[in-house]
Design a protein that fits this description.
Blueprint: H1 10-16, H2 21-36, H3 51-63, H4 68-81
Length: about 80
């Protein structure tokens, strides 16, 4: 299993000082589940996005031969873990 290393800015760490112990535990547990690789059931979400951005995103995903939802999930996972 590939080890994940997180790098944090001083500003980010400063903001984290305001977190409660429960918020810290929730974050750590969610992060552990994210990098464990265990399959999870997906959760349906709704979000507003500019039509031109969505259209361009779908076109880019099509060029890479993947669905745009899959591309969104890959980008979110990479953002959170640094793992593609």
């Amino acid at each position: 299993m590939k080890k994940t290393v997180q790098y944090f800015t001083k500003e980010y760490l400063e903001r984290c000082k305001g977190m409660t112990p429960d918020q810290i535990l929730d974050f750590l547990e969610n992060y552990r589940e994210l990098v464990s690789g265990a399959p999870e059931k997906c959760q349906l979400i709704s979000m507003k996005i500019e039509p031109s951005l969505l259209k361009a995103f779908k076109q880019k995903a099509a060029l890479e031969n993947i669905s745009y939802q899959t591309l969104i999930k890959q980008l979110m996972r990479k953002y959170m873990t640094g793992i593609s």
